[in-house]
Design goal:
heterodimer; A: alpha+beta; 2 domains; two-stranded antiparallel ribbon; 11 helices; elongated; disordered C terminus; B: alpha/beta; 6-stranded mixed sheet; 15 helices; 29% helix; transport (chain A); metal ion binding (chain A); 4Fe4S_Ferredoxin_RnfB (chain A); Ion-translocating oxidoreductase complex subunit B (chain A)
């Protein structure tokens, strides 16, 4: 009796399995969606970090954009040049030279450089400290509570002597730190060279006020723009035109750095980071 | 306190939750208002109120008279700025206010003949404020004069007063509440003003009441100011103004709590007092309305309290707007050795600052200097879900939820728990046994929510 029951049960299941698998097989053929095999291949090459640095929601979105919309293949900052080359091969295009993207902190004030600090007892976060006056005199500079450090998924930004400092060996330029900075002093810059100059200051106040709050603040004196035309002064603040800097400009930038009375221009990049000793004197010995 | 009853009003004179911090008003409440002489320079930030920033209408090296308009607020929600001194405009520089606003400010160096501030104060405290001539002013005229005088709420928030009194057909005002609660600990400037210039307040109340066409005018005072109540009772004789004596409790002076405790009405979530047919104004604002309309004087001076155990001689002062905090503190004998924190405003809602050149603005109700003993050094610990902040919150919110949502960047939870209903009174932070900076986190959370709404 039991044997017969078991046989009926398994027989029914077997029959159902056969019928359903035929239906599935038919549906697979009938409702097939044509997927470009290149998408799969591109996705394979992309690093899968899903950082959003390319401007898409994740790697798969970018892969689709490359294949279907012919998006440039050099947008992935994590994969870098090698990745772009491989992607170019698949797409049959030529990979243009990519400028790797890195975060640049536009503040150079370490704890000793800052003037008029207050004893701050509030919540130790930049977003909270930004809403009260007098954590330090400067209302533009780095607060040093490390909202950017918490936002970084690559351990590439740290607070060194109360200044956010980028580790250019690790930074991939995804821009997570720039998004959370309440004072908007971090920007993502395409590096033309391994080391580029920057004006490590964001203070747009008039010279007297900028001097009163910080020892290394830019006062917009325009002396740097006289030495090198990659510096432009707007709103009492010198800005570096990163796109125009090449190794040929090195000499004139060093001249500008030496002339800068406020020592607010410094070189940043792989090998030197953004430290106090990336200021002219040490760099010249190199 | 259990026997407290408010008679003659629909409310109970009390509201739910809230706290009872030591009020420490005795430090300065008994010292008469002293008049400070005109300082050498005044710094006038171009945004001293809620709303749009003023446009400067003076140039460097221009000579200005007392009371001349130096900044014009063109938007509706904005207030003009008048020079509190006669002198020469030095420059338009930048200034950082204690609430972290970094904005342009006009600095004026005093020169030539000055108005005597003692005269302004004597005018204010005089007992001959007229009452019968009020009916000659049309409501629109009163609103216009208030706009031109640059009057804003002097209680702290500095909301332009003309917006409150402007005729508005869609929102009828039945009751004008005049807020003399001054629930913030340490501060006593409104208390002194009510004691010394009750007639000005009554005249201003009648004027403001006429402007909003209020059927009822009520002056609300907490029961820890018996002398002020007595003076006001004498001054309001033969008028229709009533006086509501309320229970001493923080934050009794907040508009939503005040409406609840006097009139028994709830203001809907996200609504304004005008939704309940109520207009609310501070006593100091009302006194400057009287001055603006009757004496045609703009808002250039205000009463501030300088108090706290960290100050040598706590005082109440009548100062020009734009004087530096340092000069005011110096006038009061400076700070003591164990002073630890200098706060613009009261200890509950004020902002700590350290830059002594920070100017006194229209919204500065006082300077509180706390000592090391008075401030907490304890380290923050984890939230233990004890619910004390929930019991203290006068808005019936869940502060710990809001704060932690802000800390962990979760604006959707913050919105769900109505973060924007919080008016940052500080009750939750005061009672929190874990020393979590709840209000600061909630403020951060509001920024987060605003940023999310924008994107």
């Amino acid at each position: 009796m039991i044997v017969i029951t078991l046989a009926i049960a398994s027989g029914t299941m077997l029959l159902m399995a056969i019928i359903l698998s035929y239906i599935l097989g038919w549906a697979n053929e009938k409702f097939k969606v044509e997927v470009d095999p290149r998408i799969e291949a591109v996705l394979e090459i992309l690093p899968g970090a899903n950082c959003g640095g390319c401007g898409y929601l994740g790697c798969s979105d970018y892969a689709v954009a490359i294949v279907t919309d012919n998006d440039p293949v050099n947008k992935c900052t994590v994969g870098g040049e090698a990745c772009a080359k491989q992607l170019a091969e698949i797409m049959g295009v030529e990979a243009t030279k990519t400028n790797p993207l890195y975060a640049v902190v536009h503040c150079g004030a370490h704890s000793d450089d800052r003037l008029m600090p207050t004893e701050y007892r509030g919540e130790k976060r930049c977003s909270a400290a930004h809403q009260v006056a007098g954590v330090q005199g400067c209302t533009f500079g780095c607060l040093g509570f490390g909202d950017c450090v918490r936002a970084c998924n690559y351990d590439a930004i740290h607070i060194v002597d109360s200044l956010a400092t980028v580790d250019y060996e690790k930074c991939i330029g995804c821009g997570a730190c720039a998004k959370v900075c309440p004072r908007n002093i971090i920007t993502i810059v395409g590096f033309q060279e391994d080391m580029i100059p920057t004006v490590a200051c964001s203070n747009k106040d008039k010279p007297k006020e900028a001097k009163a709050v910080c020892q290394v603040s830019c006062i917009g004196c325009k002396i740097c723009s006289k030495s090198s035309d990659i510096f432009n002064v707007n709103d009492n603040l010198s800005e570096c035109d990163y796109e125009r800097y090449t190794a040929d400009n090195y000499e004139e930038v060093v001249e500008a750095m030496e002339k800068c009375a406020r020592k607010s221009i410094c070189f940043i990049g792989k090998g030197i980071g953004q430290k106090a000793d990336s200021r002219p004197s040490v760099l010249m010995q190199k | 306190m259990g026997l407290f009853r408010l008679k003659g009003f629909p409310g109970t004179g009390n509201f739910r939750h809230g706290i009872h911090p030591p009020d420490n008003k005795s430090l300065s409440a008994e010292s008469k208002v002293e008049v400070m002489q005109t300082p050498e320079t005044v710094v006038l930030p171009l945004l001293q109120h809620i709303g749009a920033q003023c446009k400067p209408v003076v140039k460097p090296r221009q000579i200005v008279r007392y009371g001349e308009v130096v900044g014009v607020g063109r938007a509706f929600i904005s207030a003009s700025l008048h020079s509190p001194v006669a002198g020469k405009v030095k420059k338009i520089g930048m200034v950082t206010l204690p609430n972290s606003m970094h904005l342009p400010a006009i600095s004026i160096k005093t020169e030539g003949d000055q108005i005597n501030p003692q005269r302004l104060w004597d005018e204010m405290t005089a007992m001959d404020w007229p009452r019968d001539c009020i009916s000659i002013y049309a409501p629109e005229t009163i609103a216009k004069i208030i706009h031109n005088s640059g009057i804003v709420g002097l209680g702290g928030a500095a909301f332009p007063t003309h917006v409150k009194v402007a005729p508005n057909d869609s929102r009828m005002i039945d009751t004008l509440l005049i807020n003399g609660c001054e629930c913030e600990p340490y501060l006593s400037c409104d208390d002194r003003l009510m004691r010394e210039a009750p007639k000005a307040i009554v005249t201003g109340a009648l004027l403001a009441g006429r402007a909003v066409a209020a059927k009822e005018i009520v002056i609300c005072v907490e029961n820890n100011k018996p002398e002020a109540i007595l003076k006001l009772q004498q001054a309001t004789e033969k008028t229709l103004i009533k006086i509501a004596v309320l229970k001493t409790k923080y934050p009794q002076g907040s508009e939503k709590q005040l409406v609840k405790s006097v009139l028994g009405l709830e203001i809907p979530l996200g609504g304004l007092p005008s939704d309940a047919g109520v207009a609310i104004s501070n006593v100091a604002t009302i006194a400057s309305v009287a001055r603006g309309v009757i004496k045609e004087g703009p808002l250039t001076h205000r009463v501030i309290s300088v108090s706290g155990r960290g100050i040598k001689h706590p005082k109440n002062l009548f100062v020009p707007i734009g004087i530096s905090m340092g000069e005011v503190i110096e006038y009061c004998g400076g700070i003591t050795e164990d002073a630890a924190r200098i706060i613009s405003g009261g200890p509950m809602m004020g902002f700590a600052f350290s830059d002594m050149t920070t100017p006194v603005t229209k919204g500065t109700s006082g300077i509180t200097v706390l000592t090391h003993d008075e401030i907490s050094d304890e380290q923050e610990t984890s939230c233990v879900r004890c619910g004390r902040c929930v019991d203290a919150c006068p808005m019936n919110l869940v502060p710990t939820r809001l704060a932690l949502a802000a800390r962990y960047n979760n604006p959707s939870i913050a919105i769900r728990y109505h973060i924007n209903a919080c008016f940052e009174c500080g009750c939750c932070t005061y009672v929190c046994p874990a020393k979590i900076k709840l209000v600061q986190l909630i403020r951060t959370g509001k920024k987060l929510v605003a940023a999310m709404a924008k994107s």
